[in-house]
Specification:
The chain has helices at about 15-25, 25-35, 40-55, 60-70, 85-100, 115-125, 140-145, 175-185, 205-215, 230-245, 255-270, 300-320; strands spanning about 75-80, 105-110, 130-135, 155-160, 170, 195, 225, 250-255, 280, 295-300, 325-330, 330-335. It is α/β, with parallel strands linked by helices and about 350 residues long. The strands form 3 sheets. The protein has a 6-stranded parallel beta sheet with strand order 2-1-3-4-5-11, with helices on both faces. Strands 7-6-8-9 form a 4-stranded parallel beta sheet, with helices on both faces. The chain has a two-stranded antiparallel ribbon with strand order 10-12. The model is unreliable at about 1-10 and about 65-70 (pLDDT under 50).
Length: about 350
């Protein structure tokens, strides 16, 4: 369990009178500008819009819901919906929300560009939501966290070692899990572990950081990171490169799809798994236990992540204070794709 500094009440959202004061105009003038109901001189309109931008004012349904006590809807902001971790986390949020008598709306942040981020935020805040959960799995999610106004209850769901800022969240300690996976391969007698990383929010993911920390602690030179996309085909291309090297005996992959691609390439190019090369994945998607060889991987409970995130948000809505973050370490699942070095 991680803890935050002593919680403080959320910042009061700016209202029409705040905008009017900052712009040096009347409240009706601000209203006319925002609703375009009547003509307003261009100079006055410019002053009002500048004040709106500087104050971060949004005429939103979320604020109305908070004031009226109508809190039956929560929103999820996410960079994707179909990828395994995203889909299962959303499923966990939706199930927990239903059990609490609340509904869920989902808005996709299409990129980390300001226009896309603000469009998604404005869409969410136009609805009478009680609070928001942002999936902080990627750059669009991180950008949404940074841009989101402080006046609405907000929590994140993401990987613990990748988290930045003071927003509370339900987290997965990917760094500790990546370290466990790497140490397991080292315990099998492999002289080093190569790593195929998946896309991240920043320079490295927690999975990569854990891999690097384990090798460094063992006094082993860290091989160059190989980068893949989320797709198995990307893993296959990397696996072709690894298969051409006789010094590669252990590979830790950033997710299961990439691991499956790596294994297929190794087999196609005459390597045996795990006799010649051991491979470990990350996520524990349902199909990997049926793969041959069954994949040794790190199990992330994304449904629990979503449920924990909703629990934190519900507490924040109820109390008006940010809750303490919670962190769970994913667990290594031993199957058939890793073995002692030959």
């Amino acid at each position: 369990m991680t803890t935050n500094p002593a919680p403080t009440p959320r910042q009061k959202a700016p209202v029409l009178s705040d905008v009017a004061k900052a712009a040096g105009v009347s409240v009706p003038t601000v209203s006319r500008v925002l609703t375009s109901s009547k003509f307003v001189a261009p100079e006055l309109r410019e002053r009002v819009m500048q004040a709106v931008s500087e104050l971060g004012y949004r005429p939103n349904g979320a604020a109305r819901a908070t004031r009226s006590g109508k809190r039956s809807m929560v929103a999820v902001l996410t960079g994707a919906t179909s990828n395994y971790g995203y889909a299962k986390t959303i499923e966990g949020i939706e199930k927990a929300a239903r059990q609490s008598g609340m509904s869920v709306i989902i808005a996709v942040v299409e990129s980390d560009e300001d226009e896309a981020v603000n469009a998604a935020i404005d869409l969410v805040l136009s609805q009478p939501v009680a609070g928001v959960i942002i999936l902080e799995f990627d750059r669009p999610g991180l950008a949404a966290v940074k841009a989101f106004p402080a006046s609405i209850p907000l929590v994140v769901a993401g990987g613990g070692s990748r988290r930045t800022g003071k927003v509370p969240g339900a987290l997965l300690d990917e760094r500790a899990a990546g370290k466990d996976a790497t140490n397991y391969l080292l315990s099998l007698g492999h002289k080093t572990v190569h790593h195929v990383a998946v896309p991240t929010m920043g320079k490295h993911s927690g999975r990569t950081e854990g891999w690097r920390a384990a090798l460094t602690a063992a006094g082993i030179d860290v091989p160059a990171v190989r980068h893949a996309t989320w797709e198995p085909s990307s893993g296959y291309r990397t696996g072709q490169e690894l298969a051409a090297r006789d010094d590669v005996t252990a590979v830790f992959c950033g997710n299961d799809d990439v691991a499956i691609g790596v294994i297929r390439a190794l087999l196609d190019y005459g390597k045996r798994v795990p006799e010649d090369v051991s491979v470990v994945g990350f996520d524990d998607q349902p199909h990997v236990a049926m793969w041959r060889p069954a994949l040794t991987t790190v199990r992330q409970d994304f449904q629990d992540l979503g449920a924990r995130a909703f629990g934190l948000l519900a507490a924040s809505v109820e109390t008006g204070l940010p809750p303490e973050s919670s962190t769970v370490k994913p667990q290594l699942v031993l199957r058939e794709s890793a073995a002692a070095a030959s």
